[in-house]
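A reminder from the course coordinator: this example appears on the midterm review sheet, so study it carefully.

Given structure:
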């Protein structure tokens, strides 16, 4: 029986990247719906759960993608609302690569430092990757600070993460100026830049003057880097005594996690893969 992956993409053109990864992960055919809205989900999922017997339902799965993470989350909720009893299929959310990127970023940092009791700073931590990475770091026992240009937004996101993931050691700070970022870096052992492409947050001179830093990572592959001095290919390189990871170094693990996650969808019909579940898949790589 063929493995069918239903790709629900919120963009006008469904992601070619996600399609290629799906085939490489073992999907036989993709059923692609672009510009998907939550109102259209029910009929599509009914077609997925009523066409194969329960024992064979694992051969159908759903992947939710697109550039808009908020829309993707709503699609995920709509999909799961259709399921009942054993009439369901496995589903994965990775809009804009946010779950796999966050998981890979934290796992790379974890290779170099024990996160239990660690002080972590996430630049642009209120975005999709930053929020998920904050939760994963905190789950490993770290104390996490997320930055935003607005104190109100930083506080709101910190509280949301704590409530959604049942965590405690997460706080938000406003950071707009060099002085703000220097203050935020004080006594931090790990810094992750999770901002959008082409925005620099801290210069090399700024981070060189903070002796507590042991590991830094930057998900941005477009110049200028979020953390000046980290090149995209960096994969555990050492700069001025600090271990660093760039976008491509993180991306190699992100790809492995993405492929593994899609492959796992076809092993059972009851998986719901979000950031935490993707993160745990590292144990199976």
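Designed residues:
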């Amino acid at each position: 029986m063929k493995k069918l992956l239903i790709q629900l993409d919120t963009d006008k053109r469904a992601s070619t990247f996600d399609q290629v990864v799906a085939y490489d992960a073992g999907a036989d055919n993709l059923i692609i719906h672009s510009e998907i809205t939550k109102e259209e989900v029910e009929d599509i999922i009914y077609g997925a759960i009523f066409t194969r017997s329960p024992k064979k339902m694992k051969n159908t799965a759903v992947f939710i993608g697109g550039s808009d993470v908020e829309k993707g989350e709503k699609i995920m909720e709509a999909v799961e609302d259709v399921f009942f009893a054993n009439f369901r299929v496995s589903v994965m959310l990775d809009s804009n690569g946010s779950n796999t990127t966050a998981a890979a970023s934290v796992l790379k940092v974890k290779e170099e430092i024990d996160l239990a009791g660690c002080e972590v700073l996430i630049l642009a931590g209120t975005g999709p990757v930053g929020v998920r990475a904050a939760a994963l770091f905190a789950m490993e026992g770290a104390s996490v600070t997320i930055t935003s240009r607005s104190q109100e937004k930083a506080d709101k996101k910190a509280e949301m993460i704590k409530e959604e993931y049942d965590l405690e050691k997460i706080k938000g700070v406003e950071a707009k100026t060099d002085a703000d970022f220097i203050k935020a870096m004080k006594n931090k052992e790990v810094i992750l830049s999770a901002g959008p492409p082409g925005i620099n947050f801290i210069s090399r001179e700024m981070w060189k003057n903070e002796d507590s830093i042991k590991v830094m990572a930057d998900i941005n592959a477009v110049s200028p880097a979020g953390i000046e001095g980290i090149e995209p290919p960096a994969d555990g390189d050492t700069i001025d005594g600090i271990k660093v990871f760039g976008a491509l170094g993180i991306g190699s693990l992100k790809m492995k996690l993405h492929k593994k996650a899609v492959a796992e969808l076809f092993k059972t019909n009851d998986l719901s893969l979000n950031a935490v579940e993707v993160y745990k898949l590292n144990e199976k790589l």
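The chain is about 40% helix and 20% strand. The first strand starts at residue 4 and ends at 9.
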